[in-house]
Amino acid sequence: MSGSSTQSFNMARPMIFGGRIKEDPIAWLESFETAMSLNNWTQWNNTKNYIKASFWDNALLWYKAQVLNLTDWDVFKTAFKQEYCTQEHMEAWQDQIETRKQRVGESVEDVIIDIRMLIGRIEDPAYPLPEATKVNWILRAVHPETAMKARDQGIKTMEDCYKELP
After folding, report:
1. Which residues 6+ apart lie within 8 Å of 71 measured at CB?
2. Is residue 10, in this structure, part of any structural domain at all?
3. What is the domain count for the chain?
4. Which positions ≥6 away from 110 have C-beta within 8 Å?
5. Averaged in consecutive runs of 10 residues, what is the pLDDT profile of the chain (166 residues)?
6. Dist. CA 133–CA 139, nearest whole Å
7. Looking at 67, 84, 101, which one is the last position of a domain?
C-alpha cells in the first residue's frame, strides 16, 4: 500500500455552523473537538483549514475577519464563544433548565444528562454555579415523588444525584 504517513484519515466530520441565532455554538464546538481528537488534528495551520471548511454564512465571514488573530485553538475557542455564545443563548439555555420536566416514560438519568448538558453551556468555569442550585434544578425537573425521596435521602451534590436517584 502506498501513501504518505502525513495523510490524514478522517474518521469524524464536525457539524457545519453558520452562526445563526437558532444554532447551538457549544454543540458545534463539541462536534469539532470530537473530530479533532478522532482525526488527530494537532497542527494549528491544518486545524484552521478544517474550521474554515465547517463554517458557512455569518460564521465564515466572522472567521475570515478574525483569522489573523487566531493563533491557536484556545484563542480561537475563546473568540468563538465571545462571538456566538450570546446573552440570548445563555438566557434560552437557563430557561430550558428552569422549565425542564421529566416526561412520561422518560428516565431520571435522561433528565440529569439533559440538565447537566445545559449547565455546561451556561456555567463559567471561573465562576462555578453553586452545587445546591444545580441539584435544585434536577429535583424540580424529576417526578415529585422522586424529588421527595431524594430530599429525604439528603441529596446535596450532583454526584449524589448521579449515584442515588433511580
Report:
1. 44
2. no
3. 2
4. none
5. 48 93 94 95 94 97 95 96 93 95 96 95 91 97 95 93 85
6. 10
7. 84
